[in-house]
Design brief:
With 412 residues, the protein is of the alpha/beta class. It has 17 helices and eight strands.
Length: 412
């Protein structure tokens, strides 16, 4: 299906690592070599959070290694250096305030709202930052989302009809609390609309996802009338999400808005399977990777078939899926930089995909987290575990880095 006419090769390491010096490449080589040792990753992901929590002097080591590979900086302003460098190679940035966890309080939720707004305002002052990423759990109590989701599941009908019935399950105090959540979301999206910055709403665990979907659809209905400001994230490692994507388009057509969609494979697989087993319900996760890949590529085709109504972000580290998307565009006579399609990979990973797509003229970005080292450690530990656990991921990254270092030695 992918032909040579695509003129995109993810094996081109000269394009992939043009932005990195020899010293930076060698540092990345050492890091990915280390992450290739699963026993060392297991030890590090257990000891690092503990060492930082008790105040051991390890922050410098963390910052010089895994932090510098996967994070844009400790502060919003520090990300400017990375964003400017990426921009030289026509790669944009999706800013993500990488702080997770913390206490549940209205004050904390308001502070998170204000931080998301600050990120939007900063992004609007830069030429290279078209999107920011937010998590509804940043400004909503997990237990409230969980109660709403459980009530939604018990009702029949469409998602929005089930949601309307589920609101009756909340007591007066909880209804007020949910109203404040919606007001925070509304404020974030209104400022994003005013500043022309896209808002990507992260996916959550299945047992709180329904209210996140609902609030995101409500925001799209209000702010996506003419173009996409708000995007929902659809995880195709769930066996029900392709159907959800199609239902979402029906809602967009019925309510007359542009559907913003970020397609990912998923991030909570082990947690989801374990919970389903413990609570004895059918796992929401696909039976195998092949089924996930099939649904992901079918979702790509569906979105591009409806590109007039769907604004799509291809958020994938899978080489075939990215090439498949470019081929679908060409088959339909659409430009690779069509305004309704954008590609994205995590900062520090899959540079061979990002920079070769950019070289071909695609609109592409790096997902760039930032935040204090102590606060982004959970994100960093996931990156280490992901690279260690995904079959071939670390080996692929390492092989490309070694190939480029050899190429540079031969050129020199």
């Amino acid at each position: 299906m992918i032909t040579q006419d695509t003129q995109i090769s993810f094996d081109n390491t000269a394009n992939a690592f043009e932005y990195k010096s020899n010293k930076e490449l060698r540092k990345a080589e050492l890091l990915f070599s280390t992450m290739g040792r699963s026993w060392l990753v297991k030890l590090g992901t257990r000891l690092t959070p503990w060492a930082i929590r008790v105040g051991l002097p390890v922050k410098g080591l963390v910052k010089e290694t895994i932090f510098s590979q996967f994070v844009g900086g400790e502060t919003l302003e520090e990300t400017a250096t990375v964003a400017k460098k990426l921009g030289l190679y026509h790669v944009q940035v999706i800013l993500d305030y990488g702080v997770e966890g913390g206490e549940d309080s209205e004050g904390k939720f308001d502070l998170a709202r204000d931080e998301f707004i600050r990120v939007i305002e900063y992004a609007s002052s830069q030429q290279n930052i078209p999107f920011i990423s937010i998590k509804v759990t940043g400004f909503a109590r997990f237990g409230l989302l969980e109660k709403l989701d459980h009530s939604v599941e018990k009702n029949a009908g469409s998602l929005m009809k089930r949601y309307a019935k589920a609101l009756d399950s909340l007591d007066a105090q909880e209804k007020d609390e949910w109203q404040r959540v919606q007001q925070r979301m509304l404020r974030i999206c209104q400022i994003a609309k005013d500043k022309h910055i896209g808002v990507l709403v992260d996916a959550e665990e299945t047992w709180i996802q329904d209210p996140v979907d609902v609030i995101t659809i409500l925001m799209m209905e209000q702010f996506n009338r003419h173009d996409a400001i708000v995007y929902n994230t659809i995880q195709l490692y769930r066996h029900d999400r392709l159907r959800f994507l199609k239902d979402s388009l029906e809602a967009a057509e019925l309510r007359n808005f542009v559907l913003g969609v970020k397609l990912v494979r998923g991030a909570y697989m082990e947690k989801e399977r374990k919970r389903a087993e413990e609570k004895e319900y059918t796992s929401p996760i696909q039976p195998n990777k092949g089924a996930t890949d099939r649904d992901y590529n079918d979702a790509l085709k569906f979105c591009i078939d409806h590109i007039d109504r769907i604004a799509l972000i291809v958020a994938s580290h899978n080489e075939f899926s990215n090439l498949f998307a470019t081929e679908l565009l060409r088959e339909r006579g659409l430009s690779l930089n069509h305004p309704h399609i954008h590609f994205s990979q995590l900062y520090g990973m899959s540079d061979n995909i990002t920079f070769n797509l950019a070289k071909a003229g695609c609109r592409v970005s790096k997902y760039l987290p930032f935040g204090p080292i102590r606060d982004v450690v959970p994100y960093l530990m996931r990156r280490a575990q992901e690279n260690s656990a995904i079959s071939g991921q670390t080996g692929r990254e390492l092989g490309l880095i070694k190939k480029e270092l050899r190429r540079r030695r031969n050129v020199d």
